[in-house]
Amino acid sequence: MAGDSGPERVLIAASFVNRVGNGLFNAASALYFTLVVGLPAVQVGAALTLAGVIGLCAGIPGGHLADRRGARTVMMLALVVQAVSMAALVLVESWTALTVVATVDQIAAAAGGAAWGALVVRVGGERPALFRARLRTFVNLGVVLGTVGAGLALAANTRGAYVTLILGNAASFALCAALLLLLPRYPVLAEPPRQHRRLAFRDRPFLTFTALYGAMGLQYPVVSLLLPIWISEHTEAPRWTVAALFAVNSAFCVLTQTRIGSRVETPHDGGRAFRTAGLFFLVSCPTMALAAHTPVWAAVGLVLAAVFVHSLGEVWESSACFALGFGLAPDHAQGQYQGVLGLGFGAGQALAPVILTTVVLGLGTAGWLLLALFFAALGAAGPSLARWGMRTRPQAGGAVAEATG
Questions:
Q1: End-to-end CA, the chain
Q2: SS3 of 192, please?
Q3: What pLDDT shows up at residue 125?
């Protein structure tokens, strides 16, 4: 059974440790730089945005390097760089220093993320869907536990507490790298003859999926960004509802990811799951909007119900993207393909705050309805995309160029 082999347990443990550290840092990083270091919020935002944009460019070359030099090696190097850069953040006292250190961190994160995707494929074994679902379950659990730890530091609200969070995240990167030493050194898969160096950029079905994946990724900041603002500005729901919705979302994803994700194994399964996710978002978004037009007791119930439905959509969407993102990529170029996929997702996440806060919030209830229809339309393309992708995959031993369809 997936999850019972040694390499799978190692990668699950390493990912869990890494995400505990991420949870520690992400929940309190902005407050550290603004309240403790004393940088203006606009400077912190500009530094992190610039670092994120530059970092996106490292995913594709990092993935290609993972394909040719080994995913484990590239991922370990990226983790070591992140450990050092994260520790260096405690020395930051200016906007320039923050920008430089954060950029180094984001470059390593993008390259490591593409290598991680390639490594997941090698470790996944005969039931990759079940393994990936279990992996994401523990990743979510790690973030939850890290966020709880960050909450304790936020309550203390001292420089020492914030520094402890940052160094804790640095330590998690180092421990994650050390755990990867327990994985076998998987041999590099040979490229087919006359292989195009930038194969992923010639693969139109995969590029189309990357665009859909990046667009559907707007569903993540719906819960983390859009809904909290909507609750505070347009509903009578108490502010504790924001904390409750995060708890419901995280807990539900942890509890259901393995059960749902293990059933989404092939790209065809992924196409249908993508459509199912769109239908759940078609229900959840109008329900969130409706909370602004009800009494306080009903608003709380509607918000929590909407997050419950939205979480179902999130699990189906992530399962679909695992099946399509890994299933459409050739084994010898998984790193390169995961780098392209990460670029698409990262671009969507970078644009999401502007789109959600201007278009959706600007239009109010109508904006929520448009968002729901947008997600449903994206999801509806899933099955036909999966058929196109599988129809244009090269046959065993065939020319890879056929994948361009």
A1: 36
A2: coil
A3: 67
